[in-house]
Amino acid sequence: MAQTKAKVRLSEEEAIAKDARYVVQTYGRQPIVLTKGKGALVWDVNGREYIDCVAGIAVNNLGHCHPKVVAAIQEQAAKLMHTSNLYYTDIQPELAERLAQITKMDRIFFANSGTESIEAAMKLARKRTGKKGFIAAEHCFHGRTMGALSITHKSKYREPFEPLVPGARFVPYGDADAIRRALNGDVAAVVLEPIQGEGGVQIPPKDYLAEVREICDKAGTLLIFDEVQTGMGRTGKWFAKEHSGVEPDIMCVAKGIAGGFPMGIMAAQEGIASAFRKGDHASTFGGNALGCAAALATIKAIEGEHLLERSREMGDYLKKELSIRCKQDFVDHVRGVGMMVGVQMNKDGNALVDKAREKGVLINVASDTVIRFVPPFVITKEEVDRVVGVVSELAL
Q1: Residue 318 above 60 pLDDT?
Q2: Is the pLDDT assigned to residue 4 strictly greater than 60?
Q3: Among 268, 288, 304, which residue terminates a domain?
Q4: Has 347 been annotated as catalytic?
Q5: Cis geometry, peptide bond prior to residue 163 (ω within 30 degrees of 0)
Q6: Per-residue pLDDT tens over the stretch 329-338
Q7: How much of the chain exceeds pLDDT 90, in percent?
Q8: Is 226 a catalytic residue?
Q9: Structural domain total, the chain
Q10: Residue 280 bears catalytic tag
């Protein structure tokens, strides 16, 4: 569906050419130039409409340009956008209190991304335990900076930049005994995603996280949950840890935390967080006033508009429709929790991304054979029906 073409800064050809000339070429971009978004929809410079099932990779949980977040940013921008963490602001501690309440943790460190949150967690784990090593899961993804990359499994990400932070070991996801066997006297923390995102929406066995918690407690090793992608309602609860009832020592949250504005946090239990002393870690932009305003508005919108319930309801509807309408010779099965859904295909699916885009639906593929759906919670049933209609035809 096309929308009236609005005035844009650059044409599609100009934008792509300037990117090729001036931007470091680290992204495999789709050949469209997006200029506007509202709800679950985005439009390109040519006025063409798309249903966005990527949502900034699980960032735009509230949809694009949620009016409450926009208003909060506008109001805060007119007062104070940034000041150094050498000073207090009135909004940062307010947000810290709300985040402590919803995370059920005691202390919050503000960063700007999921990767930065992981870096903070790794430093805190080493400081608290005096140990150096980490255990992570196969097919995990925790970020691309040198520390986070060292505990990210896929070799194509790690090998060009080795040597990385030493002491990381990888074990099969969902296998608690493998963690038990891998533990030694120098493991500072086990780092896990409660549901693997980049690994292809992999959901662990029912008692896996509880068993890992018990193993870590007995070994004197910390447990870190990476909720960068699963947090802020993505799985139908504030955080994916709530499905298991397991509490980590440290958790990392980013992506959907501020309605599309860059922010990440590391949250920790009091006895763990106290290992950090003044000067141990810092972030120039972490917890800036503009980001805090966006995050407070995001939390209020999730609560006030019952978006946790909507994530569950629309996620269930999406899974059901995909399971019914996708051909069995194309799809092995559909899995997911809340609005985090994966279609396990019987073949490589990367070529399907182009086909879907041509039909007005933005999707991406994780681990080559899984179509990952992480659309905004505000997506409508009619939009879901359009998405499923397109996906069900992709293999034809």
Answers
A1: yes
A2: no
A3: 304
A4: no
A5: yes
A6: 889 999 999 9
A7: 94
A8: yes
A9: 2
A10: no
